[in-house]
Amino acid sequence: MLLAIDVGNTNIVLGLYDGTGADATLLRDWRMRTDARMTADELALNVRGLLGEHADAITGVSVLSTVPALLRELRVMLGRYYSAAPKVIVEPGVRTGVPLLVDNPKEVGGDRVVNTLAAHHLYSTTCVVVDFGTTTNIDVISAKGEFLGGVFAPGIEISVDALAVRAAALRKVELVRPRTVIGKNTVECLQSGILYGFAGQVDGLVRRIVAELEQDDSGPITVIATGGLAPLVLAECTTIAHHVPDLTLLGLRLLFERNMR
């Protein structure tokens, strides 16, 4: 079984795959809080606890981390607890098959490369991937599977936290749809601004991106949402056609198989 580990700034997502290629199945996935101070032993304990009965069945590991401090600990954990399993870590030198058509390819995070690989595998069209995470990333992929660039914006949780810190009369609220767009109290006003504000931001950016792509005769364009916070605003976005919550895990599996050939 392949263990895919996606370490983000807010959460660590684990995915357990059985089989390879077209026969591969995502058996389970788990999510835990990211703590940049965790040691290799703490990581191993948490991972093993989540894997449960599958802990001793791991035959390969594919890892991505956007947190440098945890990447070091992940390397130690893999060497100490999964020494016999083949491993792929997303870093320079790993074969991705994704051309990076940007000014400085070294700036492109591994999560964006992996998402590009997975989106092209699923749809084989020009794609726009909206990743709702700590930041809201919008990545653009050509029909040939090339990474063309994208957009960064503050994420939902970052914005909510900033409001609570910078505005004395405001506080963190549950992120659910309010009764109406016009809020009748402070909580509903915040919920409306966050929910519909982010949906409007995403729709506006995606429409502008699609308009630019259409000028270049890019063919059919597929808009995909992923990321842990996507379900919060997905129903309010009019430009998103597909929700693929395990897009990054799929990319990690594809990357592992590509490098194990």
UniProtKB/TrEMBL annotation:
GO terms for biological process: coenzyme A biosynthetic process. The keyword Nucleotide-binding applies. It catalyses: (R)-pantothenate + ATP = (R)-4'-phosphopantothenate + ADP + H(+). The keyword Nucleotide-binding applies. It comes from the Bacteria. This is Type III pantothenate kinase. A monovalent cation. Ammonium or potassium. One of its GO terms (molecular function) is pantothenate kinase activity. Its cofactor is NH4(+); K(+). CDD domains: ASKHA_NBD_PanK-III. Pathway: Cofactor biosynthesis; coenzyme A biosynthesis; CoA from (R)-pantothenate: step 1/5. ATP binds at residues 6-13, 134. The active site is at residue 111. Pfam families: Pan_kinase. Its main location: cytoplasm. The lineage of its organism: Bacteria, Bacillati, Actinomycetota, Actinomycetes, Pseudonocardiales. Catalyzes the phosphorylation of pantothenate (Pan), the first step in CoA biosynthesis. It is an enzyme of class 2 (transferase). Homodimer. Keywords: ATP-binding, Coenzyme A biosynthesis, Cytoplasm, Kinase, Metal-binding, Nucleotide-binding, Potassium, Transferase. Belongs to the type III pantothenate kinase family. K(+) binds at residue 131. One of its GO terms (cellular component) is cytoplasm. Its EC number is 2.7.1.33. NCBIfam families: baf (TIGR00671), PRK13318.1-3 (NF009845), PRK13321.1 (NF009855). SUPFAM superfamilies: Actin-like ATPase domain. Substrate binds at residues 109-112, 186.
